[in-house]
Amino acid sequence: MAVSVMVLCALGQAPAQASGTAEDGPVSIGVIGDGLKVREVRVLLDGWKPGVRARISEWRGGEYVREVRGWKHMASKQQGRYKYEIATWKLGKNFRHQSRICAEVSGHAERRPCVTIKR
Known about the structure:
The protein is mainly beta. It has one helix at residues 2-8, and strands at residues 15-16, 20-24, 27-34, 37-46, 53-60, 63-73, 75-79, 82-94, 100-105, 114-117. Strands 1-10-9-5-6 form a five-stranded mixed beta sheet, with no helix packed on it. Strands 2-3-4-8-7 form a five-stranded antiparallel beta sheet. Strand 7 and strand 8 (82-94) form a beta hairpin. Mean pLDDT is 86; it is low at 1-16.
């Protein structure tokens, strides 16, 4: 089971067809979807930090467009020895080609991993 969590946290700024992952330090984002439609977004934070919150936003051309989902408390989870915080949103929304979905976690504002949505 830890492998599935680690796959979600794969390194890199991942261009994808509404599916991909990215990591910036301890903060990771995973986007699941088809074409330009995003079904689900998951934000992970390495380690346990009770009370931490996450939100997701849309960026285009390097500029902020809008908040996709506001602050949400993350849940503490453990898979084997791996401890993490996670927040999940079901979206079912279409995004423009080249839009970027970015994650922000409270206390880690300098870390903002993004996934680029591509056709």
